[in-house]
From TrEMBL:
The keyword Ribosomal protein does not apply. It comes from Litorivicinus lipolyticus. GO terms for molecular function: ATP binding; glutathione synthase activity; metal ion binding. Its cofactor is Mg(2+); Mn(2+). This is Glutathione synthetase.
């Protein structure tokens, strides 16, 4: 029997198929004979306690132009779907929060949501990593200027980042000269209104910010090391980094094996660990990427591996 698989994602017309993990998932689901249903966060609603989605059937083609066709959209209970993937990008704002709450209700009404909405809500991509302090570089989360300045004074070379960003946006390195320390703290905290994260700078970033994809708590055999461009400290591909696929190291596997059981326990079936050297910096649970780059380099089919796991849960 054909499965009905939904995907909640940002507008499909804006993606780059050759590098988009959501697109890889759609291709894998279609190859398995599933009927695809497309919706965006604006298509979610609640009607007398029923979780509703204004969804359209979708077909996809593995090419960079003319790569999808949408049918007519209509309002249907989300519980009519077998699986629904959450693939919307941060920032995790109030509308993202409301979407996870609607999807909680949808789960109770019959659809399996990947990743579990309550865990997407609870596991902030920066803060979740702090559950594993022994695996991280020294890290402080605060909005207090005195604390943030004291952390910098202790370490002398640090990375400041917002708690709700992605793609390297809003990330600053403050080195030994301390230039712009006050301006960065003031800007990122909005003069003490917002908590931020500061971490000791890890020189191993020159070897890449590694994205390790975890499927049901198990690491893929290869990761994508995102190498910063000249003059940059950010390895993110969106910030100009260069992706190099490489096998997992022993330390990569040790990190993954420590964190993996916690992901399974929380229903986080597709997760991206960000690793610099042998330290975890973030745990991405909303819309982790890099599947297509790893597949292209190794011949793997990670989206099919994911579908094999999650369809087995039905």
């Amino acid at each position: 029997m054909s499965l009905n698989i939904g995907i909640l994602m940002d507008p499909i017309e804006g993606i780059k198929p050759y590098k988009d993990t959501s697109f890889a998932i759609l291709l894998a689901a279609q190859k398995r004979g599933a009927t695809l249903h497309y919706l965006t966060p604006a298509d979610l609603s609640l009607d007398r306690g029923i979780a509703i989605g204004r969804s359209a059937t979708l077909t996809v083609r593995d090419q960079n132009e003319d790569f999808y066709t949408l049918g007519d959209a209509s309002f249907k209970p989300l519980g009519n779907l077998d699986l629904l993937f959450i693939r919307t990008d941060p920032p995790f704002d109030s509308e993202y929060l409301y979407a996870t709450q609607i999807l909680d209700i949808a789960e109770n009404q019959g659809v399996k949501v990947i990743n579990r909405p309550s865990s997407v809500r609870d596991c902030n991509e920066k803060l979740f990593a702090t559950w594993f302090p022994d695996l991280m570089a020294p890290t402080l989360v605060s909005r207090n200027e005195d604390q943030l300045r004291a952390f910098y004074a202790d370490h002398g070379d640090v990375i400041f980042k917002p708690l709700d960003g992605m793609g390297g946006r809003g990330i600053f390195r403050i080195g030994a000269d301390g230039m712009n320390l006050g301006a960065v703290i003031e800007s990122l905290t909005d003069s003490g209104r917002h908590s931020i994260m500061v971490q000791k700078y890890l020189p191993a970033i020159v070897e890449g910010d590694k994205r390790i994809l975890m499927i049901n708590g198990e690491p893929a055999d290869h990761c994508l090391a995102r190498i910063p461009s000249q003059g940059e400290t950010r390895g993110n591909l969106a910030a100009g980094g260069r992706g190099v696929t490489q096998p997992l190291s022993d330390s990569d596997r040790a990190l993954a094996n420590t964190i993996g059981p916690h992901l399974r326990e929380r229903g986080l079936y597709l997760v991206g660990l960000d690793v610099i050297g042998d330290r975890v910096t973030e745990i991405n649970v909303t819309s982790p990427t890099c599947m297509r780059e790893i597949d292209a380099a190794t011949g793997s089919d990670l989206a099919s591996d994911l579908l094999e796991v999650v369809t087995g849960l039905l």
